[in-house]
Specification:
The complex is a heterodimer. Chain A has a 20-stranded antiparallel beta sheet that branches. A two-stranded antiparallel ribbon of chain A has the order 3-4. Chain A is an alpha+beta fold. Chain A is elongated. Chain A has one domain. By secondary structure, chain B is mostly beta strands. In chain B, 11% of the residues lie in helices and 51% in strands. Chain B is built from 5 helices and 33 strands. The model of chain B has no long low-confidence stretch (mean pLDDT 86). Classes of the chains: A alpha+beta, B mainly beta. β4 of chain A pairs parallel with β1 of chain B, so a sheet runs across the interface.
Amino acid sequence: MNRNIILTTLLGLMITLSIKTMAQYDLGFYGMRMVPQVSTLNPAFIPEYDFHFGMPALSSSYAGFGTSGPRYNQIFMVTPTDSLALDPSGILNNVKSSNNINSRSTEEWINVGMKVNNLYFSFSVSDITGVNAMYSDKLVQLGIKGNAQFIGETINLSPIALKAMHYREFAIGAAWDINDRLNIGLKTKLLFGKAAVNTEQMDFELTTTEDYYNLDITSQFQVNTSIPYNFEDSTSVSWDEYMFYKSNFGLGFDLGATYKIDDLWTVSASVIDLGYINFDRYLKTFKSDTKFTFEGIDAMPFYGLDDNERELKIEEITDSLMNLFQIEESEEKFIVPLTAKIYLGADYQYNDKVRIGALVRLEIFKGTIRPSFTASYYRQMSKHFGLSASYSMINRSYLNLGVGIVANLNPIQIYIATDNIIGVIAPESARFANIHIGINFVFKEDKIRRPMIDL
Amino acid sequence: MTKQHLQHKHLIYIVLIGAISILTLNSCYKDRLKLDRLTGGVWNPEVAAPLFYGALDMSFVVEKSEDIWKEDPDGLLSLVYFGEQITQVGDKIISIPNQLHDTTLAYILPPTLPVGDSVEENFTLTPEFTTPINQRLDSMLIKSGKMKFDITTDLNHDSYVEIVIPQFTKYGATFKEIIEIPYSGGSSTTVTREVILDDYWLRINNSGSNNEVTEFVKVLIRKGNNPDNSPYSITLSQSIKDIEYYQIFGYFHQYNVDVDLTKIDISLFDNRAIFDATIEEAYLDLKFMNSYGMPIDITFDELYVEKKDGTKMNITSSLLPTISINYPNFNNIGSSDTTSLIFTKDNSNVVDIVNFRPKKLMYSGTSITNPTGNMVPNFVIDTSKISLQANLEIPLYGRGIVYSLQDTMKLNIEDKYNWEELSSIDINLNTVNQFPQTATLQIYLTDTNKVIIDSLFDKIQPLVEAAVPGPPPEYRVTTPVFYSVTAHLTNTKITSLHDAAYMIVSATGSTFDNGNKIIKIYSDYSLDFQISAKAEYKTDY
């Protein structure tokens, strides 16, 4: 086995999954209402500013990954020579029947908002990349231990799913302060897909028969891709074209509401990323719907062949083996739904400086719901500093302590938040880590008008 | 310090703390994740998969075999070994010698013949057509040959000679040749004429004791101004040379025609593959195809089989040693008449011959034409021959067939495969066997000097279990036998395989019940096999 190929593949997978990300958690960030970007989690949140704009390209940068399967230090082990090696046992012992792995990065280029009467309008432009995948323990067991452990059994490799996308989002939002108790918000997003790989269906069954080790394979899959890269001649479109072409149009909506029950209690709810992207460019669709039994290679045609003829025969057989999967390649437009998230929150205003919150977040991916729960504590340390602390249960991980800081140094606002400080400090031990940082320029009403008063 | 200055100071602190934190975290990540020290790991899967399958049926064996196979109507297969020897063709055995005949004709001119007139004189000649042993020749169609006339005369006048031979005809026209003899001075004049005889029919008069041809010769003299020097003489020297024929008829007496020593290889017992066998039936079919139009007897001088070590066994039969073979009649000129002699266990020792496990069958003989000496009409054509075909047919019908196949193959295992990373392999062989035969296998590994250094299997591996033959006389297998065997190869064995220079494949087997029962091999028998493997692989990557 070629060591380089394995290492490259594993590292590529890890880097892809950890850097390019899809599921934006921002659990503790949900309570940091001083930050205008909190409206990305609930468009009904109205910042306490009259006007704000983000520092271009630095207003909001989010990166995060999560997995319900093995952690980094369960995937790798430190050898006695202090080098790092894959740990098959660690992986196998920590994989569950269904596992997810996801990551997302968001880079906000522009963010601007303004209060007009009871409305707060916002506009932002962001690039979002992400991967969301599901895999089964059987798939991992098969890859690591081989199929001999399943002799005489039929294994279903489901769930297997992958959604990887890069798209640009133009978001226009409005939050309406209807009355003292109720706020509602709506954000409309114009989306332009850049690249995508999305599995419509991935069903595989493998039976290794007991007597002959025949492989009965059922394969039903459809993988839609829109990749501006030609794998046949290794050419790709120019960077300008990739970044600024306007096809692959999509539409998304965020809906939200907050309701102040009394002076102490406030509840909120939002649905984020309801929408889709219709990919119509650089298309490739791979489909297979077949069931076959591999009984080995017919030995009889090899009789009497010389070396060259044998080589040709092997090539012919290799091609025919690939054809067993009957993979059809076509160019079909496809729609990728966004990964919708539901946030349900409740806040308790403990005193003037302290707010305690609870948040349930539900993420819907390929028909499955991934829940998480967060308890948060927010303290306004001073007029200019707020501190957030959170505890989250997510990805079968029950010790995720998050922190967040926001500093309003008029007019500059700097914030940083993470939902798992251990994940930031010791990512190898975390199933989940994220960090969200940004710089805004925020202006409250008195600050805007003060120069005029001074005059 | 103003409030604004204080805020700016806080901002600087935050930026500095943030920058330091990021740098620290980045450094910390590198140290904690140790990605730069990623060396790989150990991959230790165990994979099970089918490798090969096939159906080794007799049609495949027959198709790939270099031997000749015969299938009976009931499907019983036989191996056939074939040889053919052809005698010299007819015109090389019965040849026509050159003929030479000289005649001198005397002639006196009439004294009163005026100058300018001519006079003719006719002669009849009957030259003899000689043969080597006084054969009687009736006729022949000449393929090639020539007749030459040399005429010498002392005539001092112009003349010509006309020769007519009614027994020579071509497409119905009688042979006629006029040879002018102009006088050009001198004491004698000589004229030569050559005639091509191709495609002439020659009918020979043999009513007497000789073969004769009648010629009519006319001499015409035109008297000139020269004096009359009578008597004159004309010497006619004629020859027939280089005669080859298409057909010849007559009675040719007795000739000997040799059947040269002929060898038929019998591969069934090659390479010591079969070291014990009892064949129940065999046939030796000698087929003579004779296109000579005359009685011929053939006597076998040698008819035997020979083992590889040179030991011989003669074929004995009540049909031997002399065989009279058929010949075509005048209505079948150009065709062959066939005489077939089949040696069976009832009239010969042919079964013993086969069970002698010979490597070759040898035969030679002598034939004699007109063996009784009775004068019967004979004919020979230029392509007449005797073809002797010998077929030794061995039905796959016997018992106690114990065989051993051994072959040495050069191993060329490429180093691009890391064989040492295979911890073990379990090779499964599943067979559904319709043959009433067992088989076992061992593979020996040798060094470059072909000295055995290891064996692939710990013990001789049984491969195939024999199917049970049915009752006589068919002895047909009706129910195939399923057999499954697993050979476990350890890493040590796999490494030996990789390091070996040659492997000696040694397979042995026998017919059902250790060869105690009679079996037959039919064309619809097959051996379905499937090879699968379960391999444990361990690699550092």
